[in-house]
Amino acid sequence: MTPQMVVAIGREALMLTVMVSGPLLLFALVVGLIISIFQAVTQIQEMTLTFVPKILAVALALLIFLPWMINMATDFARHMFELIPTLAG
């Protein structure tokens, strides 16, 4: 196993992590921004108002994107298992 292979595998793993977590974080970011604007306009500073909608948005995003996320993770795992014979030499 060469250092270039290690870097390539690490890069691929990091890209997978960013791609899988991206939709969930984006949903949380958009909902958090909307709630922050709502709180600034109405001057309601309730702490649960920020957490509950974000949790619900992330749960909704998880329901929407879970099949795609599982597909991406299994493709990566399959690719890693296919690389095992090439790493032994």
Separation of the first and last Cα atoms: 8 Å
**How would you characterize the largest beta sheet?**
none
Task: Summarize the amount of helix as a percent range.
Answer: over 70%
Proportion in β-strands = under 5%
Describe this entry's structure for a reader.
The chain is an all-alpha fold and 89 residues long. The protein contains two helices and no strands. Helix 1 (3-42) runs antiparallel to helix 2 (48-87). The radius of gyration is 19 Å and the shape is elongated. The termini are close together.
Q: Which SSEs are present, and which pair or pack?
A:
Elements: H1 3-42, H2 48-87
Main features:
89 residues; mainly alpha; elongated
Summarize the structure.
The protein has 89 residues and is mainly α. The chain has helices spanning 3-42, 48-87.
